[in-house]
């Protein structure tokens, strides 16, 4: 996921939202991104409030191309309903990516340029809140809780193993035709040649049925189709490339609009099946 893709996602789903001073919320998001240095930190910064303040969920971010370890940090920086602020900050401090972004987030929120635009009583209350938050973050990060990797962390590490590291040719997110949420992201890579084989293209997909990597024969046609978001062409080429595409509706639907389930044959996995909002059933992956 490139930074510009994350910014486009934030621009789409923070549209119309404002901060306490009435300014567009995207301005805060971009300032937080400017306050960190590493590429992964910038991705987390741009997306740090999407799970908390928009309709998007973790599956949506994954389908938008968010790398698993970045998604893990976005989840950790998201304040859960009913969670105490202290427990929340302790969780943030346990994830280095989330911690770096939260420090930048607090720094921007506590800026006097922003606070002076507020009612003096509200500004005073927020100054104390952010001072206390900084103190707790420093305390928790100085003595982090050391534990075995969680199932989420192991899952993120495992998912990263299948991500190509070669040159990216084209990448695009396909948007739901019903609600506009991300349905899947396809990235075509140019893989380096080996001593025994010529160079070939690799297609990496992130969709509602997970991620996958496979070789592509007709590289130029696939590259053009991804650039144009031509799900129909890709579906004719191989229906598993675009499990978000309904062949009968000829529309893209996101995870929220597919009802999907796993079918078994004699107790063994057979395929993933799905039903679109119009009732059409198809095999999503086998």
Any chance you could write out the topology, listing elements then pairs?
Layout: H1 3-13, H2 25-34, H3 39-47, H4 50-53, H5 58-63, H6 68-76, H7 85-93, H8 96-109, H9 112-115, H10 120-142, H11 151-160, E1 167-175, E2 182-191, E3 200-207, E4 210-216, H12 219-227, H13 231-237, E5 245-246, E6 251-252, E7 259-265, E8 268-275, E9 281-285
Antiparallel strand pairs: 1-2, 2-3, 3-4, 5-6, 7-8, 8-9
Helix pairs in contact: 1-3, 2-3, 2-8, 3-6, 3-8, 7-10, 8-10
Report the biggest beta sheet as strand number plus sense, adding barrel if it closes: 4 strands, antiparallel
Strand order of the largest sheet: 1-2-3-4
What is the rounded distance between the termini? Answer: 26 Å
Structural class: alpha+beta
Strand content: 15-25%
Low-pLDDT segments: none
The overall pLDDT, averaged over residues, is 91
Shape: elongated
- Which assembly state applies to the chains in this document? single chain
> What's the total number of strands?
9
Order of helices and strands: HHHHHHHHHHHEEEEHHEEEEE
The whole-angstrom Rg is 21 Å
Count up the helices: 13
Instruction: Tell me roughly what share of residues is in helical segments.
Output: 40-55%
């Amino acid at each position: 996921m490139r930074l510009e893709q994350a910014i486009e996602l934030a621009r789409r789903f923070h549209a119309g939202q404002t901060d306490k001073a009435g300014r567009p919320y995207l301005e805060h998001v971009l300032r937080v991104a400017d306050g960190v240095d590493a590429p992964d930190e910038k991705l987390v910064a741009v997306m740090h409030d999407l799970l908390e303040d928009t309709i998007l969920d973790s599956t949506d971010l994954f389908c938008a191309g968010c790398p698993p370890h970045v998604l893990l940090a976005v989840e950790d920086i998201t304040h859960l309903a009913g969670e105490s602020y202290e427990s929340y900050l302790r969780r943030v401090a346990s994830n280095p990516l989330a911690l770096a972004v939260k420090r930048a987030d607090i720094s921007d929120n506590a800026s006097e340029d922003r606070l002076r635009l507020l009612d003096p009583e509200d500004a005073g209350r927020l100054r104390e809140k952010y001072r206390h938050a900084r103190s707790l973050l420093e305390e928790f990060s100085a003595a982090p809780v050391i534990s075995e990797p969680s199932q989420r962390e192991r899952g993120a590490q495992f998912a990263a193993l299948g991500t190509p590291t070669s040159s990216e040719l084209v990448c695009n997110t396909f948007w739901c035709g019903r609600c506009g949420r991300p349905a899947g992201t396809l990235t075509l890579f140019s893989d380096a040649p080996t001593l025994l084989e010529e160079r070939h293209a690799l297609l990496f997909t992130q969709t509602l049925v997970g991620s996958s990597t496979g070789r592509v024969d007709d590289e130029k046609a696939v590259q053009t189709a991804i650039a144009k978001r031509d799900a129909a062409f890709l579906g004719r080429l191989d229906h598993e490339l675009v499990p978000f595409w309904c062949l009968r509706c000829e529309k893209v639907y996101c995870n929220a609009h597919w009802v999907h389930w796993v079918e078994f044959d004699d107790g063994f996995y057979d395929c993933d099946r799905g039903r679109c909002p119009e009732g059409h059933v198809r095999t999503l992956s086998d």
